[in-house]
Please model this.
Amino acid sequence: MLGAIIGDIAGSTFEFSNTHDYNFPLFARRSNYTDDSICTVAVAEWLLDDPNLTHEVLETKLVEYAQLFPCPMGGYGGGYRTWLFHPECLRSNDGLPTDGKRHPYHSWGNGSAMRVSAVGWMFDTLAETEHAAELSASITHNHPEGIKGAQATAAAIFMARTGSTKEEIRKYIEEKYGYNLHRTCDEIRPTYSFDETCQGTVPEAIIAFLDSQDFEDAIRLGVSLGGDSDTLACITGGIAEAFYKYIPSALAGEALDLLPTRFIDALCRLREKGHYIPTY
Model:
């Protein structure tokens, strides 16, 4: 999960001002965690505290974290912000007002994938992982693409941490989720632009991991693609951490220095209760 947070921080200054420079500063003066990390930690606490994986507890965690961190760098996405702070303004799929409670809003945005990394560390089987990923997404992002993005991300992390090769990960994700992963970062970069959808972010993030040689390389490739930089690198970093099982201590230290105590506590609890083994 720390790998996802590092990706988020590294991409944070480029979210609305993309860079294609591979040698960008990983931790610039304004770099910080964003809503990606906040939601990631909220989902981790849900997994740790709710063995029944209920939407009721997940909603409580997501709302609690938003109240603790109401104005993160880059802000919350429009639909998600409404879900968090103004559920009475939500509309049903047919455009009618809801009952004022929080309901999923048929989103296919990449928010479901950006917050899912802890799911990839908590379960013993791929089927359990994909089921939990669906639950984590569907509380807000109940569109098939929103669910698929979360499941593909969590599945890649599970496979990476359990010893699958990159080709095995590529083959499974392509066949199960239909993403085209037979592209390279160099092929994507010239025409890729800002995209907040799962289908326009998750494949590119996975490709950045597949093209990489180590953890830092994965983060640099992800951010240098452009696009929704913090979310793309967050997804890439979560998979790369699981595969390489190592984060350079300098990167880990820089990130941990920026994080609130509660984030660090969640990371420590995940190490104790999940299958969390990367070193840094």
Notes: The mean pLDDT is 95. The two ends are 13 Å apart (CA to CA). The first helix runs from residue 2 to 11. DSSP finds 15 helices and no strands in the chain.
